[in-house]
Amino acid sequence: MAISGRLVLLAAAGLAPVLLFPGWLTVLGVLLVLGVLILLDVLLAAALQQVSVERSAPANVTLGGTADSVLTVHNRGRRRLRAVVRDAWQPSAGAENPVQATEVPAGERRRLGVRLRPVRRGDLKAPHITVRSFGPLRLAARQKTVHAPGSLRVLPPFNSRRHLPSKLRLLRELDGKAAVQIRGAGTEFDSLRDYVRGDDVRSIDWRATARRSAVVVRTWRPERDRRVVIMLDTSRTAAARVNDEPRLDTGIEAALLLGVLAERGGDRVDFFAFDRRMRARAGTTAGGNLLGQLVQAAVPLQAELIELDWAQVPAQVRAVSAHRSLVVLLTALDGGAPEEGLIPMVTRLAQQHVVVVASVRDPLLGEMLQDRTTAAQVFRAAAAERALLEREAVGAQLRQLGVEVVDAEPHQLPPALADAYIRLKAAGRL
Amino acid sequence: MVAARRRKTGWMRRHRAGVLFGLALAVALAVVLAFQSTQQGDNQELSIRNPGPQGARAAAQILGAQGVTAEQTASFEETLAAARASRGRGSGSTVLVYDQRGFLAPERLRRLLAETDRLVVVSPRLATLTGLGSTIRQAGVVPGSEKTLQPECTVADAQAAGDISADGGFLYAGGTVCYGAGGSGRGLYASAEDGKLVVIGSTAVISNQFLAANGNAALTLRTLGSQGDLVWYLPGPGDLGGSPAPKTLAELAPAWSAFVAPWLIVVALFAVLWRGRRLGPLVFEPLPVVVKSAETAEGRARLYHEAHDVARAADTLRAGTVVRLASALRVGTAAGLSDVAGSDVAAAAARHLDRNAAEIQQLLQHRPATEGQLVRWAQELVRLEKEVQAR
Fold first, then answer.
1. Which of A13, A121, A300, B372 is the most buried (most CB within 10 A)?
2. Average pLDDT taken over every residue of chain B
3. Are A302 and B288 an interchain contact pair (Cβ–Cβ within 8 Å)?
4. How far does the CA of residue A242 sit from the closest CA of chain B (Å)?
């Protein structure tokens, strides 16, 4: 049961008879007329028991894109349905026209498209649909809420995709396949070819040269089928917002870029998100499209307000890959006490694997450092300085252990991590 | 059965806040109503419903306990009706009149005197006394030096009562006079016409505040309690008589105006129902935890500031500058981290900038004492860094 704005206008118009024939009898009479009209309208409205509403689930959508949720209203009753329908999506689904008016003649069905422009990654829910059926006068309505759970999977945007072409070209140059004919770097024997001017004389294969009249050089190519293990930290430090983006989302972007790049580089990629237990897992071994798997694995991830269990990380890495691998830890360098968790664990990991620690640096700290006009600002600068020095100290300690440290601002982190991978691959350290 | 109970408890749980709020509102309403009903008092002077110092509730209650029913009236007609009713019941009536502002007209006063067995007038004005047409007339005030007054007369009530308080009393002459001050035929208590008319020149004698002092209570109770019924008459502006009250705004306005506001309220109620009905329940948004990353650094900055920890802030700023200078001058970050004194860095910077090493060393080693010095020194550090990075 609900009333419309028309009824309010009608009631306001009722002021006229009340003023023309003042008296409590008139007031009661007008009220009675209004009541009868409401009753009549509600009784003549289409019965909602015979109206069914269904939602066809929209497909996956990347963050920043749009999707359409389609409602089908079926009127099985004998009266015409004059309805206002609300598709109840959660606010972050960004429904542009969630409330729509429609008229469905008896026995027919109508479709309503609701445009969604989601503003957050994850599985967004729509628990119900509400239908309000007005009478012919549109003064009053019946209302019913139908339980109709729906869900929209919003994938991470992968904005760092734009870095992919340039990084892939770098990778191809490494491989010796690129248009720029430089000798492939790496340590794995690839093939023999004729010497051209400019080649390193150390790479001349004298035995092959002796068999032919021309000078022959060996070419090398980077190792293939190496393993890359990416660990994404989903503990409390991932909840920190840097430049309007949580650290977790920056980590996902970096993991996606690195994963796609490493797969094209011929390596096996394994991804897992971990805090105290495994939150998500994806990898080449499962077969199929790696990017799709990574994206699907990253969708439901949320930062948990718990401390990362560093002691478990080596075991988790071992479970994923028993061999020597490139282990990429997407975490924070300033998570309270790295000396207690991160550094001892990395010391253990670095004995068997090549370890890269990637972390987001807050550009706000750099700004705080520069503002030194008032006393309050100088104290802020000192606090920022301290935070940066602590990061620097942890970074230096990690580098001493032979660990590659990638410390960059949010938008720079994915390409910087990709560069680190390419550098390690070129140096043959994988 | 079980399902029904579960549904019921579910309803209770969902509407717990509403139910609690409603209960609290009901309790508050009950308390307010209870207070309203117990507190019937007013603050009119000499009112038997006034429990304050100026009131006369004590006297009325004591009289009530002795079987004299006191009834307070506010209009002349009421008073007459009450006096006639008590006469009709067969018990005599006493009427107490305290006409502070002189509202009563002379003919009304005379009718009152004729209709009652005893008329007690408290602190009457000149107009009241002339209106009554008795021989009693005003005779000044009690001298300030007098604290109490002796009866000094043959009236039984006064003799039984003994001394009474004299504060702020008026004196009257004529008739039988008691409690004279100065013995010149003037007194606080005067009675005339065989004791049918009694004038008491003081409100203090009857008031709650002084009733217990001296013989006040005895005089009051004996004077007012001689008959079975007591009508306590405090005239108000309504007793002035004369022309009827001027027409109010509501009477002048046209008939329909009375219905505008109620009907607008009805329309507003419809509007509330229209806007207040939601199109289905709300959908919850599970909000993830997101914290500003620099929050810890800012908190630490406030800690430094509130503690005025200039030394620690200076040490941190110095260390940061030394580390950055060391990396810019290729002295080695490790050296910068360990070289707290910064002498190597200062020397390198001096070579780089063609400046005096001791001067730069002094700048790096300066220890500011106040916040003002800290601000200036911090700015100089930034300038040095920019200089080194620019060349």
1. A121
2. 82
3. yes
4. 6
